[in-house]
TrEMBL record:
InterPro entries: AhpD-like, AhpD_core, CMD-like. Residues 21-96 form the Carboxymuconolactone decarboxylase-like domain. Keywords: Oxidoreductase, Peroxidase. This is Alkylhydroperoxidase AhpD family core domain-containing protein. One of its GO terms (molecular function) is peroxiredoxin activity. It holds the Pfam family CMD.
Length: 161
């Protein structure tokens, strides 16, 4: 599969993606734990089949100190013992918020209650916005066949500066 279009070299797409990426800085700088942010972004990217975003979030998480075991088990977090209750709540929200078409009620009351149990209002806001943002990013990359494998740690930060 070859990339269809380079979003970074087109003037309109470049302006949009830079502004889009800058919205991520608000979330990056929030009190939502960085590990949770990367795990949520990775899980949504896995569900959406976005190799570019999965590559980026795996590498950024590893650079921030995330273990290979936890990164390897994100796709099977329900059957794994390496995630905290708070991370499990965030991963459930990420899955249910990503798979909206698969479940008529969207995010379940049970998942929402677990999220509210573990996160304060600012963290909930960041988590909800993160799920929306990563799903939008996945769609951008999947539509143009942006392939994973070439992401360099820190490239995201450099792109928005």
């Amino acid at each position: 599969m070859e990339p269809r279009f380079d979003l970074f070299s087109n003037e309109i797409a470049g302006k949009f993606t830079k502004r889009f990426a800058n919205t991520g800085l608000v979330l990056h700088n929030s009190t939502l734990p960085r590990a949770t942010q990367e795990l949520v972004s990775l899980r949504a990217s896995q569900i959406n089949g976005c190799g570019w975003c999965a590559d980026m979030h795996t590498k950024e998480a590893a650079a921030a100190g995330e273990t290979a075991v936890r990164l390897s088990l994100v796709a099977t977090w329900r059957e794994s013992t390496v995630f905290t209750e708070a991370e499990r709540a965030a991963l459930a929200l990420a899955e249910e918020g990503t798979r909206l078409a698969d479940a008529s009620p969207g995010v379940s009351d049970e998942t929402w209650a677990q999220v509210r149990k573990h996160y304060d209002d600012d963290q909930v806001a960041a988590l909800v916005c993160l799920v929306a943002l990563i799903n939008a990013a996945n769609r951008l990359a999947v539509i143009v066949h942006q392939q994973g494998g070439s992401y360099e740690v820190g490239a995201f930060a450099a792109a928005v500066s």
